[in-house]
Amino acid sequence: MKDLLHPISLVVATLGFLCLLRDVPTRRRDPASTALAAVFLLSGLSFLFSITPMWNYLDRVLGTVNLSVPLAQGCVVALLACQQVVLTYWGSPPDVARRRSRRWLGAGFAVIAGLLVLFALLTPSAPHPIDFTLYYAHDDWYAAYLTLYVTAYTIGELFLARACWRLARRSKRGSVRVGLRIVALGATVTLGYSAVRIGNVIAGAFDTSLAEWESFAWTCGDVGAMLTLIGWLVPTIRDQTQSVQYRIRQYRCYYGLRPLWLAFYSEAPEIELPIDRVDPAQRRRFRRISIRLYRRAVEIRDGRFVIRRYLDAAVREASEAHHRARGLHGQELSAAVTADQILAGIAARATDARPEPGKLTEFADAERQTTRPMDDIDALLDVARHLPRQPARAPHLERVSA
To answer: How far is Cα of residue 297 from the mean position of the Cα atoms in its chain?
Structure first.
Protein backbone atom coordinates (compact mmCIF):
# COMPACT_ATOMS: atom_id res chain seq x y z
CA MET A 1 0.00 0.00 0.00
CA LYS A 2 2.84 2.39 0.86
CA ASP A 3 4.54 1.99 -2.51
CA LEU A 4 1.21 2.54 -4.24
CA LEU A 5 0.14 5.72 -2.42
CA HIS A 6 3.49 7.41 -1.80
CA PRO A 7 4.28 8.08 -5.50
CA ILE A 8 0.88 9.73 -5.92
CA SER A 9 1.48 11.90 -2.87
CA LEU A 10 4.98 12.67 -4.16
CA VAL A 11 3.53 13.97 -7.44
CA VAL A 12 1.04 16.20 -5.60
CA ALA A 13 3.79 17.58 -3.35
CA THR A 14 6.12 18.20 -6.31
CA LEU A 15 3.46 20.04 -8.31
CA GLY A 16 2.61 22.16 -5.30
CA PHE A 17 6.26 23.02 -4.68
CA LEU A 18 6.76 24.02 -8.32
CA CYS A 19 3.67 26.24 -8.20
CA LEU A 20 4.96 28.01 -5.10
CA LEU A 21 8.58 28.13 -6.24
CA ARG A 22 7.57 30.53 -9.00
CA ASP A 23 6.48 33.15 -6.44
CA VAL A 24 9.19 32.66 -3.80
CA PRO A 25 11.72 35.12 -5.39
CA THR A 26 9.08 37.88 -5.52
CA ARG A 27 8.03 37.20 -1.91
CA ARG A 28 11.42 36.98 -0.25
CA ARG A 29 10.21 39.13 2.63
CA ASP A 30 7.15 36.96 3.26
CA PRO A 31 8.06 34.19 5.75
CA ALA A 32 4.67 32.51 5.30
CA SER A 33 5.27 31.95 1.56
CA THR A 34 8.75 30.57 2.20
CA ALA A 35 7.44 28.27 4.95
CA LEU A 36 4.61 27.04 2.72
CA ALA A 37 7.07 26.22 -0.07
CA ALA A 38 9.13 24.34 2.53
CA VAL A 39 6.01 22.36 3.52
CA PHE A 40 5.63 21.01 -0.02
CA LEU A 41 9.37 20.36 -0.40
CA LEU A 42 9.61 18.50 2.92
CA SER A 43 6.43 16.56 2.20
CA GLY A 44 7.78 15.46 -1.16
CA LEU A 45 11.09 14.38 0.41
CA SER A 46 9.30 12.39 3.12
CA PHE A 47 7.39 10.42 0.48
CA LEU A 48 10.49 10.02 -1.69
CA PHE A 49 12.61 8.63 1.15
CA SER A 50 9.91 6.09 2.05
CA ILE A 51 9.50 4.53 -1.41
CA THR A 52 11.17 1.11 -1.44
CA PRO A 53 13.62 1.69 -4.36
CA MET A 54 14.84 4.96 -2.81
CA TRP A 55 14.98 3.31 0.63
CA ASN A 56 17.26 0.57 -0.72
CA TYR A 57 19.33 3.10 -2.67
CA LEU A 58 19.98 5.25 0.42
CA ASP A 59 20.92 2.17 2.46
CA ARG A 60 23.45 1.23 -0.20
CA VAL A 61 24.91 4.69 -0.78
CA LEU A 62 24.97 5.97 2.82
CA GLY A 63 25.98 2.66 4.37
CA THR A 64 23.40 2.84 7.18
CA VAL A 65 20.53 0.38 7.21
CA ASN A 66 17.00 1.86 7.27
CA LEU A 67 18.25 5.45 7.43
CA SER A 68 15.22 6.46 5.37
CA VAL A 69 13.10 6.17 8.53
CA PRO A 70 14.57 9.13 10.46
CA LEU A 71 15.07 11.08 7.23
CA ALA A 72 11.43 10.74 6.18
CA GLN A 73 10.01 11.22 9.64
CA GLY A 74 12.34 14.13 10.32
CA CYS A 75 10.93 15.81 7.20
CA VAL A 76 7.41 15.18 8.51
CA VAL A 77 8.23 16.81 11.87
CA ALA A 78 9.86 19.77 10.09
CA LEU A 79 6.87 20.28 7.77
CA LEU A 80 4.49 20.16 10.75
CA ALA A 81 6.52 23.01 12.30
CA CYS A 82 6.52 24.92 8.99
CA GLN A 83 2.74 24.56 8.71
CA GLN A 84 2.40 26.21 12.11
CA VAL A 85 4.71 29.00 10.92
CA VAL A 86 2.38 29.62 7.96
CA LEU A 87 -0.70 29.76 10.16
CA THR A 88 1.05 31.93 12.73
CA TYR A 89 2.01 34.56 10.15
CA TRP A 90 -1.43 34.41 8.55
CA GLY A 91 -3.26 34.90 11.83
CA SER A 92 -0.97 37.01 14.08
CA PRO A 93 0.86 40.36 13.98
CA PRO A 94 4.45 40.08 12.62
CA ASP A 95 6.15 40.50 16.02
CA VAL A 96 3.98 37.86 17.65
CA ALA A 97 4.34 35.57 14.64
CA ARG A 98 8.14 35.75 14.77
CA ARG A 99 8.24 34.71 18.43
CA ARG A 100 5.78 31.85 17.98
CA SER A 101 7.49 30.66 14.81
CA ARG A 102 10.83 30.40 16.61
CA ARG A 103 9.18 28.25 19.27
CA TRP A 104 7.60 25.93 16.72
CA LEU A 105 10.81 25.57 14.73
CA GLY A 106 12.82 25.05 17.91
CA ALA A 107 10.43 22.34 19.08
CA GLY A 108 10.63 20.68 15.66
CA PHE A 109 14.44 20.61 15.68
CA ALA A 110 14.44 19.22 19.23
CA VAL A 111 12.14 16.36 18.21
CA ILE A 112 14.26 15.62 15.12
CA ALA A 113 17.41 15.53 17.27
CA GLY A 114 15.71 13.13 19.68
CA LEU A 115 14.64 10.86 16.81
CA LEU A 116 18.18 10.71 15.44
CA VAL A 117 19.60 9.81 18.86
CA LEU A 118 17.03 7.07 19.48
CA PHE A 119 17.47 5.69 15.96
CA ALA A 120 21.21 5.46 16.54
CA LEU A 121 20.52 3.24 19.57
CA LEU A 122 18.58 0.68 17.50
CA THR A 123 20.31 -2.61 16.78
CA PRO A 124 21.36 -2.63 13.10
CA SER A 125 19.55 -5.16 10.95
CA ALA A 126 18.67 -5.93 7.37
CA PRO A 127 16.67 -3.36 5.37
CA HIS A 128 12.93 -3.40 6.12
CA PRO A 129 11.27 -0.84 3.81
CA ILE A 130 7.88 -2.59 4.03
CA ASP A 131 7.47 -3.86 7.60
CA PHE A 132 9.94 -1.71 9.52
CA THR A 133 7.52 -0.85 12.35
CA LEU A 134 6.33 -4.43 12.76
CA TYR A 135 9.90 -5.75 12.79
CA TYR A 136 11.04 -3.37 15.55
CA ALA A 137 7.76 -3.31 17.47
CA HIS A 138 9.26 -5.33 20.37
CA ASP A 139 12.45 -3.24 20.66
CA ASP A 140 12.41 -0.92 23.69
CA TRP A 141 14.46 1.76 21.96
CA TYR A 142 12.16 1.69 18.98
CA ALA A 143 9.16 1.93 21.29
CA ALA A 144 10.67 5.14 22.68
CA TYR A 145 11.48 6.34 19.15
CA LEU A 146 7.95 5.63 17.90
CA THR A 147 6.37 7.16 21.00
CA LEU A 148 8.31 10.41 20.49
CA TYR A 149 7.47 10.56 16.79
CA VAL A 150 3.78 9.68 17.14
CA THR A 151 3.37 12.12 20.02
CA ALA A 152 4.91 14.97 18.02
CA TYR A 153 2.97 13.94 14.91
CA THR A 154 -0.37 13.74 16.72
CA ILE A 155 0.10 17.03 18.57
CA GLY A 156 1.14 18.72 15.33
CA GLU A 157 -1.89 17.44 13.41
CA LEU A 158 -4.31 18.32 16.22
CA PHE A 159 -2.92 21.86 16.47
CA LEU A 160 -3.06 22.10 12.66
CA ALA A 161 -6.71 21.04 12.43
CA ARG A 162 -7.75 23.35 15.27
CA ALA A 163 -5.81 26.37 13.98
CA CYS A 164 -7.03 25.92 10.39
CA TRP A 165 -10.65 25.65 11.47
CA ARG A 166 -10.42 28.79 13.62
CA LEU A 167 -8.54 30.81 11.00
CA ALA A 168 -10.99 29.73 8.27
CA ARG A 169 -13.83 31.34 10.21
CA ARG A 170 -11.92 34.62 10.42
CA SER A 171 -10.70 34.80 6.82
CA LYS A 172 -12.50 37.08 4.38
CA ARG A 173 -11.16 35.30 1.28
CA GLY A 174 -13.28 32.43 0.03
CA SER A 175 -10.34 30.45 -1.40
CA VAL A 176 -8.48 30.68 1.93
CA ARG A 177 -11.54 29.52 3.88
CA VAL A 178 -12.05 26.52 1.59
CA GLY A 179 -8.34 25.65 1.56
CA LEU A 180 -7.95 25.81 5.33
CA ARG A 181 -11.00 23.59 5.88
CA ILE A 182 -9.55 21.01 3.48
CA VAL A 183 -6.27 21.17 5.41
CA ALA A 184 -8.18 20.65 8.67
CA LEU A 185 -9.98 17.64 7.15
CA GLY A 186 -6.67 16.16 5.96
CA ALA A 187 -5.10 16.64 9.39
CA THR A 188 -8.07 14.86 10.97
CA VAL A 189 -7.76 11.91 8.56
CA THR A 190 -4.07 11.48 9.40
CA LEU A 191 -5.04 10.80 13.01
CA GLY A 192 -5.97 7.29 11.82
CA TYR A 193 -2.27 6.77 11.12
CA SER A 194 -1.42 8.05 14.61
CA ALA A 195 -3.94 5.70 16.20
CA VAL A 196 -2.41 2.64 14.52
CA ARG A 197 1.12 3.69 15.44
CA ILE A 198 0.11 4.21 19.06
CA GLY A 199 -1.47 0.77 18.86
CA ASN A 200 1.86 -0.62 17.62
CA VAL A 201 3.59 0.65 20.77
CA ILE A 202 0.89 -0.80 23.04
CA ALA A 203 0.75 -4.08 21.12
CA GLY A 204 4.54 -4.44 21.39
CA ALA A 205 4.29 -4.20 25.18
CA PHE A 206 1.84 -7.13 25.17
CA ASP A 207 3.77 -9.21 22.58
CA THR A 208 0.99 -8.86 19.96
CA SER A 209 0.91 -7.36 16.48
CA LEU A 210 -1.26 -4.99 14.47
CA ALA A 211 -0.05 -6.26 11.10
CA GLU A 212 -3.57 -6.31 9.66
CA TRP A 213 -3.89 -2.54 10.31
CA GLU A 214 -0.81 -1.50 8.32
CA SER A 215 -2.74 -0.80 5.11
CA PHE A 216 -5.23 1.32 7.05
CA ALA A 217 -2.41 3.31 8.65
CA TRP A 218 -0.71 4.11 5.34
CA THR A 219 -4.03 4.93 3.68
CA CYS A 220 -4.93 7.41 6.41
CA GLY A 221 -1.44 8.91 6.32
CA ASP A 222 -1.27 9.35 2.56
CA VAL A 223 -4.88 10.40 1.96
CA GLY A 224 -4.69 12.88 4.84
CA ALA A 225 -1.38 14.26 3.55
CA MET A 226 -2.79 14.66 0.03
CA LEU A 227 -5.84 16.49 1.36
CA THR A 228 -3.58 18.74 3.40
CA LEU A 229 -1.41 19.57 0.40
CA ILE A 230 -4.43 20.20 -1.80
CA GLY A 231 -5.88 22.48 0.86
CA TRP A 232 -2.70 24.54 0.98
CA LEU A 233 -2.75 24.75 -2.81
CA VAL A 234 -6.29 26.10 -3.13
CA PRO A 235 -5.44 29.77 -2.31
CA THR A 236 -2.24 29.56 -4.37
CA ILE A 237 -4.04 28.17 -7.41
CA ARG A 238 -6.72 30.84 -7.04
CA ASP A 239 -4.12 33.61 -6.88
CA GLN A 240 -2.19 32.26 -9.84
CA THR A 241 -5.39 31.81 -11.85
CA GLN A 242 -6.22 35.46 -11.26
CA SER A 243 -2.65 36.39 -12.19
CA VAL A 244 -2.88 34.45 -15.47
CA GLN A 245 -6.27 36.01 -16.24
CA TYR A 246 -4.84 39.48 -15.58
CA ARG A 247 -1.84 38.75 -17.81
CA ILE A 248 -4.13 37.53 -20.61
CA ARG A 249 -6.15 40.71 -20.23
CA GLN A 250 -2.95 42.75 -20.53
CA TYR A 251 -2.06 41.00 -23.78
CA ARG A 252 -5.56 41.57 -25.16
CA CYS A 253 -5.39 45.24 -24.19
CA TYR A 254 -1.95 45.58 -25.74
CA TYR A 255 -3.10 44.28 -29.11
CA GLY A 256 -6.46 46.04 -28.80
CA LEU A 257 -4.64 49.39 -28.56
CA ARG A 258 -2.56 48.70 -31.66
CA PRO A 259 -4.95 50.43 -34.15
CA LEU A 260 -5.00 53.57 -32.01
CA TRP A 261 -1.22 53.50 -31.56
CA LEU A 262 -0.67 53.01 -35.31
CA ALA A 263 -2.93 55.95 -36.07
CA PHE A 264 -0.65 58.25 -34.04
CA TYR A 265 2.59 56.57 -35.08
CA SER A 266 1.74 56.97 -38.78
CA GLU A 267 1.76 60.75 -38.38
CA ALA A 268 4.10 61.19 -35.38
CA PRO A 269 6.61 58.34 -35.09
CA GLU A 270 8.53 60.37 -32.52
CA ILE A 271 6.07 59.12 -29.88
CA GLU A 272 7.81 55.71 -29.83
CA LEU A 273 10.05 55.44 -26.77
CA PRO A 274 13.70 54.64 -27.71
CA ILE A 275 14.10 51.19 -26.17
CA ASP A 276 17.35 50.64 -28.06
CA ARG A 277 18.97 53.18 -25.73
CA VAL A 278 18.00 51.27 -22.61
CA ASP A 279 20.77 49.58 -20.64
CA PRO A 280 21.04 45.96 -21.92
CA ALA A 281 20.83 44.73 -18.32
CA GLN A 282 17.41 46.40 -18.03
CA ARG A 283 16.15 45.57 -21.52
CA ARG A 284 14.69 42.26 -20.43
CA ARG A 285 12.32 44.10 -18.06
CA PHE A 286 10.98 46.10 -21.01
CA ARG A 287 9.89 42.89 -22.73
CA ARG A 288 7.36 42.17 -19.98
CA ILE A 289 3.80 42.63 -21.09
CA SER A 290 3.07 44.97 -18.16
CA ILE A 291 5.88 47.33 -19.24
CA ARG A 292 4.96 47.03 -22.93
CA LEU A 293 1.33 47.85 -22.21
CA TYR A 294 2.35 50.80 -20.06
CA ARG A 295 4.67 52.01 -22.84
CA ARG A 296 1.89 51.75 -25.40
CA ALA A 297 -0.49 53.75 -23.22
CA VAL A 298 2.17 56.43 -22.61
CA GLU A 299 2.96 56.65 -26.33
CA ILE A 300 -0.73 57.03 -27.16
CA ARG A 301 -1.04 59.80 -24.56
CA ASP A 302 1.98 61.47 -26.14
CA GLY A 303 0.27 61.17 -29.52
CA ARG A 304 -2.84 62.82 -28.14
CA PHE A 305 -0.68 65.65 -26.81
CA VAL A 306 0.95 66.08 -30.25
CA ILE A 307 -2.38 66.59 -32.08
CA ARG A 308 -4.07 68.52 -29.28
CA ARG A 309 -3.27 71.80 -31.07
CA TYR A 310 -5.26 70.63 -34.10
CA LEU A 311 -8.59 69.84 -32.39
CA ASP A 312 -11.34 71.87 -34.04
CA ALA A 313 -14.51 72.58 -32.04
CA ALA A 314 -16.57 72.25 -35.22
CA VAL A 315 -15.37 68.66 -35.68
CA ARG A 316 -16.38 67.82 -32.12
CA GLU A 317 -19.83 69.38 -32.47
CA ALA A 318 -20.54 67.60 -35.74
CA SER A 319 -19.32 64.27 -34.34
CA GLU A 320 -21.43 64.60 -31.19
CA ALA A 321 -24.55 65.33 -33.23
CA HIS A 322 -23.86 62.37 -35.50
CA HIS A 323 -23.27 59.85 -32.73
CA ARG A 324 -26.17 61.09 -30.62
CA ALA A 325 -28.39 60.45 -33.60
CA ARG A 326 -27.05 56.89 -33.61
CA GLY A 327 -28.18 56.51 -29.98
CA LEU A 328 -24.81 56.75 -28.27
CA HIS A 329 -24.52 58.43 -24.89
CA GLY A 330 -22.24 58.68 -21.85
CA GLN A 331 -18.74 57.24 -22.06
CA GLU A 332 -19.47 55.48 -25.34
CA LEU A 333 -20.44 58.79 -26.92
CA SER A 334 -17.31 60.56 -25.66
CA ALA A 335 -15.12 57.67 -26.90
CA ALA A 336 -16.67 57.74 -30.38
CA VAL A 337 -16.30 61.54 -30.60
CA THR A 338 -12.68 61.30 -29.40
CA ALA A 339 -11.93 58.77 -32.14
CA ASP A 340 -13.30 61.20 -34.76
CA GLN A 341 -11.28 64.03 -33.21
CA ILE A 342 -8.10 61.94 -33.39
CA LEU A 343 -8.56 61.14 -37.07
CA ALA A 344 -9.40 64.74 -37.89
CA GLY A 345 -6.48 66.02 -35.80
CA ILE A 346 -4.01 63.65 -37.49
CA ALA A 347 -5.25 64.78 -40.92
CA ALA A 348 -4.98 68.44 -39.88
CA ARG A 349 -1.44 67.95 -38.62
CA ALA A 350 -0.43 66.30 -41.87
CA THR A 351 -1.36 69.51 -43.72
CA ASP A 352 -0.44 71.81 -40.82
CA ALA A 353 -3.99 73.18 -40.80
CA ARG A 354 -4.41 74.54 -37.29
CA PRO A 355 -7.79 75.90 -36.21
CA GLU A 356 -8.10 79.46 -34.99
CA PRO A 357 -7.37 79.92 -31.26
CA GLY A 358 -11.02 80.54 -30.49
CA LYS A 359 -12.04 77.28 -32.15
CA LEU A 360 -9.66 75.01 -30.24
CA THR A 361 -11.27 72.40 -28.01
CA GLU A 362 -10.38 69.46 -25.76
CA PHE A 363 -10.84 65.73 -26.37
CA ALA A 364 -14.39 64.66 -25.63
CA ASP A 365 -13.19 62.08 -23.09
CA ALA A 366 -10.79 64.46 -21.31
CA GLU A 367 -13.01 64.60 -18.21
CA ARG A 368 -13.38 60.82 -17.87
CA GLN A 369 -12.40 59.77 -14.34
CA THR A 370 -9.76 57.03 -14.06
CA THR A 371 -8.71 55.93 -10.59
CA ARG A 372 -6.81 52.71 -11.40
CA PRO A 373 -4.13 52.01 -14.05
CA MET A 374 -6.41 49.66 -15.99
CA ASP A 375 -9.17 52.31 -15.98
CA ASP A 376 -6.93 54.47 -18.17
CA ILE A 377 -6.30 51.50 -20.46
CA ASP A 378 -10.05 50.84 -20.69
CA ALA A 379 -10.65 54.47 -21.67
CA LEU A 380 -8.11 54.17 -24.51
CA LEU A 381 -9.60 50.85 -25.62
CA ASP A 382 -13.05 52.45 -25.87
CA VAL A 383 -11.58 54.99 -28.26
CA ALA A 384 -9.68 52.32 -30.23
CA ARG A 385 -12.87 50.34 -30.80
CA HIS A 386 -14.41 53.31 -32.64
CA LEU A 387 -11.54 53.71 -35.09
CA PRO A 388 -12.15 52.42 -38.62
CA ARG A 389 -10.24 49.26 -39.49
CA GLN A 390 -7.95 50.52 -42.23
CA PRO A 391 -4.23 50.29 -42.96
CA ALA A 392 -2.19 53.02 -41.35
CA ARG A 393 -0.22 55.43 -43.52
CA ALA A 394 3.55 55.16 -43.71
CA PRO A 395 5.22 57.26 -41.00
CA HIS A 396 6.84 60.58 -41.84
CA LEU A 397 10.38 59.66 -40.84
CA GLU A 398 11.65 63.21 -41.35
CA ARG A 399 9.69 64.23 -38.25
CA VAL A 400 11.35 61.74 -35.91
CA SER A 401 13.60 64.45 -34.49
CA ALA A 402 10.71 66.84 -33.90
So the answer is: 27
